[in-house]
Design goal:
mainly alpha; 80% helix; single chain
């Protein structure tokens, strides 16, 4: 919740690319393990904060933003779409920060959240760190490293930008 703006996708790719170079001291297996643990724990803490704080905030005040109906809608949404939301949110900057928090507020089952949290961490970190590791030593990637990182950032923010654009067009 504190740093939703950090560019996780490009950093994972960059870390994998750096680990792929022979002059690097980064061990890809250790890096993978540490990042998986950090990712899972970060989302779990975010979920638990939402679960602990969220309902108390909704009880304390009634307003448009803190409407009890929103809490009930979040609960129904996470009952129906919670798993895929946690997995897909991992790949979308800013959304990945708030999805676990909202899952906690919406009382998504802790067991289900934990399962999808682990799956999403493995897919996200494994995919981007692995892609960086396997592509990082390629001459083309080395020559165009900055451009590739910018491309990853653009691809990461594309889904929410397109969604917002389509919503404006429909209105």
């Amino acid at each position: 919740m504190v740093t939703p703006f950090l560019p996780g996708d490009s950093l994972l790719f960059a870390a994998g690319s750096i680990a792929a170079n022979s002059d690097s001291n980064l061990n890809i297996q250790l890096l993978f393990l540490i990042l998986i643990i950090a990712s899972i724990l970060g989302n779990k803490i975010n979920y638990l904060i939402g679960r602990f704080i969220g309902p108390r905030v909704f009880i304390a005040k009634q307003s448009w933003l803190l409407n009890k109906n929103h809490l009930e809608k979040a609960h129904r949404f996470y009952e129906k779409h919670g798993g895929k939301t946690i997995v897909f949110a991992r790949f979308i900057p800013i959304i990945r920060t708030f999805a676990p928090f909202v899952a906690g507020i919406g009382y998504m089952s802790l067991r289900l959240f934990t399962f999808y949290n682990i799956i999403s961490a493995l897919l996200w970190i494994g995919g981007l760190l692995g892609a960086g590791y396997f592509l990082g030593s390629q001459p083309f990637v080395k020559a165009h490293f900055n451009t590739i990182l910018y491309g990853i950032v653009i691809l990461s923010i594309l889904p929410p930008v397109l969604t917002l654009s389509l919503q404006k067009v429909r209105r």
